[in-house]
Design a protein that fits this description.
This protein is an alpha/beta fold. The chain contains 17 helices and 17 strands.
């Protein structure tokens, strides 16, 4: 029985004979796939009345799964998306959480959504509208605040209030960061190379990759530094003011269970600033993104079934042949693309015994534990921050804020959680999309989305069932400190902890990015060595979710890249 795992190229300690062996096995795989596709094509033509047979099935109707499906449908493949929840979107969904109040339940910011996907799937024609917010207001101790803006001069002016030296160097810092981030943006759309592939094809891929990025040595050194340095040390290379360091250091803590002094956290700053759309919200909430992608896909024939949780990905002779849902429905397909987390796909939906031992070793080593809380709050008035003056740096109201007055404050929040408890004084990102999006709340009232850290997946010496209310109390206490009277304005709220993300969205251990975005889980190692190219050890089974390059955030890039690779195989072997 031939498995795609047999085609893993030789490690570096094997000789050049691996190249000819690889070519031989590739030929066998092509024959295997050709037979597979031809057989199912014939079946579909003979039994055309069957609605349970498709060219492609997407497991998981999150935004990446929808994106992958929309591209495949646009290319002419009959495509079915199966979603376990009652609504599509996964983490990018808009739901009513209090009578008359709607919110982006899990993800909040549209800035990472890739312009290429928006353009190619014509999402704006299907209702997608980006409401941009060019500034982040950062309340500080002492009735003060500092504002970061996409306008360099505005940020420079704000920084100058705390350090003239830092203000002078900021344009150079911004220029250097921008240059490095531009390279990272190019890397987003790459299919990761396999440095262990010594076949002729693999060596050609490596050479082409090197050629595309020749001349960018300095930027790659910066990326490497960011992957190994702490955010604090990285920022200290540039700035002397603690206020300026916390302004940028805050980005290192969002979505990660690490302190600002932890090695590798500098990369998190770049990761969060990598989005090409800037800051801002999707009008109607993040669910509007998923709905627009779905509408684009449906226009090309894509079908979507909700409340259809997939229990098993069916394989035969080392090939994916379809899926079975938890309620017993069976769907067959020429190929399957999994938008769920890698540890869910491999070892659960596909039994361990059907997968290579080395591959499962990598999947078993997949790490990442959620630590962020999310509280969606209905309020009868806007929060008023004591450290912010309307009109400061040209900002009328801080619809996007970061509450964390110092580096020490951030580290104390991390220390609490590192010991196995939730933060007594958490850092908080209050976002008020209803200030610029009237569709989310009744007139005169607002939606405030609170997220931050830290709330560990598991508690030491306690149970979450007894501590949930205390988390809300701690978060509201911080808000009351920086926006006096906030608690009195609350009409209702919904709380989501990592365990809730796991239960509702199926994200292992509640990690909103499907797993840590760290040096050992990036690029050609995401989700596993030799299979970072959106394929898998099972012939015809692909990966299209956040477990693949470039990782989490609402970017649609994994779905876009996976569809590109699927279509390469499909068109070549059709």
């Amino acid at each position: 029985m031939l498995r795609a795992a047999d085609l893993i190229t030789s490690p570096a300690n094997q000789d050049i004979r691996a190249a000819s062996e690889f070519q031989h096995k590739t030929k066998r795989l092509n024959e295997c796939l050709q037979a597979r596709f031809s057989c199912q094509k014939a079946q579909t033509e003979v039994q055309g009345y069957m609605t349970t047979s498709y060219d492609a099935i997407i497991v998981g109707g999150g935004h990446n799964g929808l994106t992958c499906g929309a591209y495949l449908a646009k290319a002419g493949l009959s495509t079915l998306v199966l979603e376990r929840r009652h609504i599509i979107g996964g983490a990018a969904a808009t739901e009513e959480f209090h009578p008359g109040f709607r919110a982006s339940t899990f993800s909040y910011i549209m800035g990472h959504m890739h312009p290429k996907v928006i353009r190619e799937l014509e999402l704006e024609q299907y209702g997608l509208e980006h409401l941009k917010v060019p500034e982040v207001v950062h309340p500080l101790d002492g009735d003060d605040s500092i504002i970061w803006s996409t306008d360099v001069k505005v940020s420079q002016s704000e920084i100058a209030r705390f350090s003239k030296k830092d203000a002078e160097i900021y344009p150079r810092f911004f220029q250097d960061m921008s240059r490095t981030i531009q390279i990272m943006r190019r890397l987003l759309l790459e299919t990761p190379i396999d440095p262990g592939d010594r076949s002729l094809a693999g060596l050609k891929d490596l050479a082409r990759f090197a050629w595309r990025y020749q001349g960018f040595h300095r930027e790659f050194y910066e990326i490497f530094d960011s992957l190994t340095m702490s955010a604090y040390d990285f920022l200290s290379r540039w700035f002397e003011s603690e206020e300026v360091k916390v302004l940028f250091g805050y980005w290192a803590a969002i979505g990660f269970f690490r302190g600002v002094h932890t090695p590798g956290t500098a990369y998190s700053i770049m990761f969060h600033l990598c989005g090409e759309n800037g800051l801002g919200f999707s009008k109607g909430g993040m669910g509007a993104i998923s709905e627009a992608i779905a509408a684009s896909g449906r226009n090309h024939g894509m079908e979507i079934i909700t409340e259809a949780a997939v229990d098993k990905i069916v394989t035969k002779d080392g090939r994916a042949t379809g899926v079975i849902t938890t309620d017993g429905r069976e769907f067959s397909a020429r190929l399957v693309a999994a938008n769920v987390a890698a540890p869910v796909t491999f070892g659960r939906m596909v039994p361990r015994e059907e997968l290579p031992e080395e591959f499962m070793k990598a999947i078993d080593g997949w790490h990442g534990t959620g630590q962020a809380f999310k509280i969606n709050v209905a309020v009868d008035r806007l929060p008023v921050y004591r450290g912010f003056t309307p009109g400061q740096a040209g900002v009328d109201y801080p619809s996007y804020a970061h509450v964390c007055p110092s580096i020490d404050y951030m580290e104390r929040a991390f220390d609490d959680a590192r010991k196995g408890w939730y933060s007594e004084k958490p850092f908080v990102s209050p976002i008020v999309p209803s200030y610029i999006d009237e569709t989310l709340s009744p007139e005169g009232k607002h939606v405030v989305l609170l997220s931050g850290g830290h709330t560990p997946y598991e508690l030491k010496g306690g149970e979450w069932a007894q501590e949930r209310d205390n988390v809300v109390r701690n978060v509201f206490s911080v808000m009351d400190e920086f926006a006096p009277g906030f608690s009195d304005s609350v009409l209702g709220y919904s709380l989501y902890l990592p365990m809730d993300l796991e239960e509702v969205l199926g994200m292992p251990r509640g990690h909103e990015l499907h797993g840590d975005v760290s040096l050992d889980q990036l690029f050609f190692k995401r989700s596993a060595p030799h299979f970072a190219n959106y394929r898998s050890p099972i012939c015809g089974l692909y990966q299209c979710g956040s477990s693949t390059h470039p990782g989490g955030s609402v970017s649609a890039v994994p779905g876009h890249n996976a569809a590109r690779e699927i279509l390469k195989d499909y068109k070549r072997l059709k």
